[in-house]
Structure formats: structure tokens, C-alpha cells
Write a structure and sequence with these properties.
single chain; 224 residues; alpha/beta; Rossmann fold; 2 domains; seven-stranded mixed β-sheet; 7 strands; 19% strand; globular
Length: 224
């Protein structure tokens, strides 16, 4: 490519400037967010081991902050509690609660099968008043285990097609119109992407946002 062309050179400079500004904005956002957490006595949750990046965790926090007052959110697949803490931190000021569904046996995690429930409880201690745990697979939830309406659902359990489809089949019917259903690892796991595609094909869901490997959909509102 001939960069001696003034137009092409200007385009390159513009692209570089936009990239640098976006990086600065993201860095500044993380810095402000860390200070906010520390001021609320929640700084320790930033050190919880997680396969979810800080930017993705902040996005989950913001989704929780945007939820209605006195609502309920559910997370399927909680691992050591990092994402649960971020969601709960966003829900707590809204007098809302989070239901975490997991076996805490680490079956699908790369670090091997082990009982992680005690670690989860320690890591989420600061948010214990907001979090309710259900220690079982989503398919074993009783019909009344979840409220009739959920404002936010986060699917991050078994990433196989059957696993994701099962989790979505349990959670999605409870998401209220205008509510959010988020998925982790959508770009890298075919099972997750395929289930998202199926939801979009129903016409009841619309893509709403993406940060890194975190993708979320909004349940459409229909006139009655």
C-alpha cells in the first residue's frame, strides 16, 4: 500500500488515533470502577480468579446496574464467584437479588474436578445478603425454583450445545420483556454460538451488546 498518498496517510493516522483513544477510555473506566469498588469495601473481589476478563466483569456489573428495582437475576455457572460478585454489586443498591446455580464440582473447568463451593462462599462473603445459591444442575431445578420474571440471566456453565441449550431452556422463559440474557465465551464455543443463533431465529430476541467474549441479547417487547 502506498502510504505516500495523503488520503491514505490521513486514514492511517485517524485509525491509530481512534484506537489510542479507545484504549485510554477503557483504561480510565477500569481505574474509576476499581476506586468505586474499593470505596464500597468490595475491592477484594477484583482478585478472585476468573476466566472472565475485567472488562467483561464490568459489563456484567453495568447490566445489573441497569436492571429494575427489586428484581431478580440468575447466573448459571458461578465457578469461584468473580462474576457473581460483580453482578451482585450492581444489584445490591437496587434492592435486588442474584440466584447462582452451579454444582461447584468444577466438571467443565480446565483446572480439573474438585469441590469449589467453600471457595465460592469465601469469595462472595461481602455479597452474601444479595446472593442465593442453588447447588445442582439447571435441569434439576424445580418449577418454582426461579421467579416468574427475571431481569437478567447470565449463562456460563457447560459450553456444549446440549448444555447451553438446557440452561437456556430453564432460564430464558423467565426473562421478562426488555430483560437481558448474557452468554460468556460465545465467539469461541460453537455450542454457545449455535444456541444464540437459535434464539435470534425465534424473533423474540435481539442482539444488544458485546464486550470481548461476553454477548448479551434483549428479550423483545411485544404490544398486547
Amino acid at each position: 500500500m502506498n502510504w505516500s498518498n495523503p488520503s491514505l496517510l490521513l486514514l492511517r493516522v485517524h485509525g491509530s488515533l481512534v484506537y489510542r483513544i479507545s484504549r485510554w477510555v477503557a483504561s480510565r473506566k477500569r481505574h474509576v470502577f476499581r476506586r468505586q469498588l474499593a470505596s464500597r469495601g468490595l475491592g477484594a473481589m477484583m482478585a478472585i480468579p476468573s476466566f472472565t476478563t475485567e472488562d467483561e466483569l464490568i459489563a456484567l456489573y453495568e447490566l445489573a446496574c441497569a436492571s429494575p428495582l427489586h428484581c431478580t437475576a440468575v447466573e448459571v455457572g458461578s465457578y469461584l464467584g468473580a462474576s457473581a460478585c460483580y453482578i451482585a454489586a450492581g444489584l445490591a443498591p437496587r434492592s435486588s437479588r442474584l440466584i447462582c446455580v452451579d454444582t461447584w464440582q468444577n466438571e467443565t473447568m480446565p483446572d480439573g474436578v474438585r469441590d469449589t463451593f467453600s471457595e465460592f462462599l469465601r469469595n462472595t462473603a461481602a455479597c452474601r445478603e444479595t446472593i442465593t445459591t442453588l447447588r445442582l444442575r439447571s435441569r434439576k431445578l424445580l418449577p418454582d425454583a426461579l421467579p416468574s420474571e427475571l431481569a437478567l440471566g447470565f449463562i456460563d456453565g457447560d459450553h456444549s450445545f446440549d448444555g447451553v441449550r438446557c440452561d437456556v431452556g430453564v432460564v430464558a422463559p423467565h426473562i421478562s420483556e426488555g430483560g437481558i440474557l448474557a452468554f460468556h465465551d460465545a465467539p469461541h464455543f460453537a455450542g454457545v454460538s449455535k444456541v444464540i443463533g437459535e434464539l435470534l431465529q425465534t424473533g423474540h430476541w435481539a442482539p444488544r451488546g458485546q464486550v470481548g467474549n461476553l454477548v448479551w441479547l434483549c428479550k423483545k417487547r411485544f404490544e398486547k
